[in-house]
Design goal:
Blueprint lengths: L1 E2 L7 E9 L10 E4 L4 E4 L5 E6 L3 E9 L2 E10 L4 E2 L2 E3 L9 E2 L7 E2 L8 E4 H5 L6 H5 L5 E6 L2 E6 L8 E4 L2 E2 L18 E8 L3 H4 L6 E7 L6 E10 L3 E12 L2 E12 L2 E2 L9 E2 L1 E14 L4 E22 L2 E25 L2 E20 L4 E21 L5 E15 L6 E18 L2 E12 L3 E15 L2 E12 L3 H5 L1 E4 L4 E4 L8 E14 L3 E22 L7 E25 L2 E14 L12 E11 L4 E10 L2 E2 L14 E2 L2 E11 L4 E8 L16 E9 L2
Parallel strand pairs: 1-7, 2-8, 2-9, 15-18, 35-38
Antiparallel strand pairs: 2-5, 3-4, 3-6, 6-7, 10-11, 12-17, 13-14, 15-16, 17-18, 19-20, 19-46, 20-21, 21-24, 22-23, 24-25, 25-26, 26-27, 27-28, 28-29, 29-30, 30-31, 31-32, 32-33, 33-36, 34-35, 36-37, 37-38, 38-39, 39-40, 40-41, 41-44, 42-43, 44-45, 45-46
């Protein structure tokens, strides 16, 4: 405890905030007295002053976007007081605590599993307000828009093979196999952790391509209220609210977001929509925490989501073109509870119960308003899990646990109307250091699936750090993906359009893969890092729907989900992230990818061979201005039109794609910020290949209570 003195009334607490590197003033640093919700900002010389009514014990929190947060416990006496504070430059997310790669808390620099972290505070600099927008600048991640929405591909494996989690809990609501990441608001999201490569040992079936874990904030501040609103091109509007409160053993976190857009049609010569639908979305989420005792913590959370999409579809039946009004309504409800038990500093046990429901309805109306076609699916998932970690005195760490998952899908397009699957598993991983600076992390998982029986996955991670700044990470492991309920039992009879899609049933086998990677990393502690990674993924029995024949009724084709081919992806990722000084951040990444059918040698769809991404932020602290520029370039890729059914045989290559973007934010008062951004400034548009929208502009206000 730091003890100081101050007068009984009108106590003046002040001082100077400086950088520990060059002793320069930290302009615009925020100083908060947590108990009183009083705050001040450092001036151009780094000086601050706060008046406090009475003496007592207080906690000061000093924050700045370019520096590490510092917390001081102080006790004011009977005199004015000066407290000078030095802040360390914010490390390039290197001292971030991550959990996804091992299900155990680790500092990012020490975790044996290569993990990418996207901080929400950094993503907001680019104007991101949803998860898909936040991931677009991340290395090795390709975010594409299609009929499934905005899905994330990792190292050449498409969104159907990437597991999406929120606080470690599985999301449902896959449309055409993918979770639409544009549905997930960044309100109350602290960061996003990404583990690329097989994650099946810890997370099971859907993690054959990797894991994206969206981590929400824990209540910390006594009271915090944030709000942001923006308006832009296509009559787009967004408004979000965040509330946080911590009182004694109770904590509360609430977030709400509404957004809408008129969408766009880039080709008015056709009767149908060539572009994005008209969309309305609403998100509401909440979290309550309670410290039950020194050893027990309880967390209860819930989420509600609603979405409406409208667009125009056309169909040509010689010699007439028919138009239809398409509507899509999506609802998601989820709730869960977690008890964390820590009987001693070396042992932690988490027990979770979670449930979620997703309702998807698509309807197609004629010009006269008559219902022409519809599709509805209701997706239910319930999960119970336990995870325990124990650290031994010699540095060995054991993590073990188990999960039980029950999922059902209800739809007129599912055989029998409703189908259910369930699975149970146990897993274990063991960390030890056989020699100094060498960490071994083997793991094994035994899973029992209601449809496919037992399956065993094993993996091993290795990390060697011969120097404090140099690390070598390696991984080898097996992956497993059981066919989804749709792939097993789907029956989409679209005879009006001349085709039908049928599930594979008992003829389907699970997908299996072997994945390896080797990563070399050099870090400048607190400044940045360079990392180069080689990866290879070999996949057997990949499941796609395959053309099996024709009939007079299904003149466009009869399609069936089958294990159609074997494939591999391999490549190299390079990234550099540098904090040049506490005013300038810079990052660049490059990915070279080969993704081919192992039997024919043909490229897999929608996988560009080369991808280059750049991002830089400049902070002008003296005037409260932040300028962020970012962009990307993708080489050509094998492509088919979005509406094609047989989507893995084509000789059409989409051209290269680039985008350049700029965002500017300016603090106008202590708690109020104005921002504007322009995206795709070069107006790079290719309607045929879905490269859209064109140049767009948005502007808005952001208010923070602290």
């Amino acid at each position: 405890m730091l003890s100081i003195s101050a007068p009984a009334f009108g106590i003046k607490l002040g001082g100077t905030i400086t950088s520990s590197e060059d002793k320069s003033p930290v302009v615009e640093a925020n100083i908060l007295v947590e108990e009183l919700d009083l705050n001040a900002r450092a001036d151009l010389e780094g000086r601050y002053q706060i008046e406090i009514d009475k003496a007592g014990k207080y906690r000061l929190q000093i924050t700045h976007v370019s520096f590490e947060t510092k917390v001081l416990d102080i006790e004011l006496g009977e005199r004015d007081t000066v407290i000078n504070v030095t802040l360390s430059s914010r490390t390039y997310i290197y001292d971030e605590v991550v959990v996804t790669g091992t299900r155990t808390p680790y500092l990012l620099k020490d975790v044996p599993v290569t993990t990418e972290v996207i901080r929400t505070d950094d993503a907001i600099k680019t104007g991101a307000s949803t998860v898909d927008q936040a991931l677009k600048s991340a290395v090795g991640i390709n975010v594409d828009n299609n009929f499934s929405g905005s899905g994330a591909s990792l190292r050449g494996l498409d969104p159907t093979r990437v597991l999406i989690l929120i606080d470690g809990e599985k999301m449902v609501g896959r449309v055409r196999g993918a979770i639409d990441l544009a549905q997930i608001s960044l309100a109350n999201v602290e960061k996003i952790e990404v583990v690329k490569g097989v994650g099946s040992t810890l997370y099971g079936s859907d993690a054959i391509g990797g894991v994206v874990n969206i981590i929400t904030r824990k209540p910390q501040a006594q009271l915090r209220l944030n709000s942001a609103g923006e308006y832009g091109t296509f009559n787009s509007y967004m408004q979000n609210l965040e509330l946080e409160s911590k009182r004694g053993n109770w904590g509360l976190q609430m977030g709400a977001r509404f957004d809408r857009t008129d969408g766009f049609d880039l080709d008015k010569t056709t009767p149908h929509t060539n572009g994005m639908e008209r969309i309305k979305r609403f998100n509401l989420d909440g979290k309550v925490t309670r410290r039950l005792s020194k050893a027990f913590d309880l967390t209860v959370n819930g989420n509600f989501f609603r979405e409406r999409k409208d667009w125009i579809e056309s169909e040509y039946i010689d010699p007439i073109t028919f138009t239809f009004d398409d509507q899509e309504n999506n609802f998601r409800y989820s709730a869960g509870s977690k008890i964390a038990f820590q009987p001693n500093p070396r042992t932690l046990v988490d027990v979770n119960v979670y449930g979620t429901y997703y309702d998807h309805l698509w309807e197609k109306f004629t010009a006269s308003g008559a219902l022409s076609d519809k599709s509805r699916t209701e997706d239910y998932l319930g999960e119970a899990s336990v995870n325990a970690t124990h650290s031994y005195k010699d540095g060995h760490v054991v993590t073990m646990g188990g999960d039980f998952v029950a999922q059902s899908l209800k739809s007129e397009e599912i055989e029998g109307g409703t189908q259910e699957v369930s699975s149970g598993d146990v897993y274990m991983q063991y960390e030890w250091k056989p020699v100094e600076n060498l960490t071994m992390l083997p793991g094994i998982r035994l899973e029992e699936h209601s449809t496919f029986g037992e399956h065993v996955n094993a993996s091993i991670n290795v990390m060697y750090n011969p120097h404090p700044r140099f690390r070598i990470r390696g991984f080898h492991g097996g992956g497993f993906r059981a066919p989804s309920i749709k792939e097993l039992y789907f029956r989409f009879d679209h005879s009006a359009a001349g085709y039908i899609v049928i599930g594979g049933g008992e003829d389907l086998n699970p997908e299996k893969s072997r994945n390896s990677s080797l990563s070399l990393e050099y870090s400048y502690e607190g400044i940045g890092l360079h990392r180069i990674t080689y990866f290879y993924n070999d996949i057997n029995d990949m499941i796609e729907f395959n053309l099996t024949g024709f009939s007079p009724t299904y003149w466009r084709g009869i399609y069936k989900y089958q294990n159609v081919f074997k494939a591999y992806t391999r490549g190299i990722e390079w990234q550099s992230e540098l904090k040049i000084n506490h005013h300038v951040d810079f990052s660049v990444s490059y990915t070279w990818l080969t993704a081919k059918n192992r039997e024919t040698g043909h490229w897999l769809l929608n996988r560009p061979e080369h991808a280059l991404k750049l991002l830089s932020s400049i902070h002008f602290d003296e005037v409260g201005l932040v300028v962020t520029a970012w962009g990307s370039w993708y080489s050509g890729k094998l492509w088919v039109p979005l509406g094609e059914q047989n989507d893995f045989e084509t000789d059409v290559w989409a051209p290269t794609r680039r985008d350049i973007n700029l965002s500017v934010s300016k603090r106008v008062w202590d708690n109020l910020e104005v921002f504007a951004r322009g995206e795709n400034l070069t107006d790079d548009v290719e309607i045929e290949f879905g490269y859209w929208p064109g140049r767009t502009f948005h502007a808005g206000l952001r208010w923070n209570s602290m």
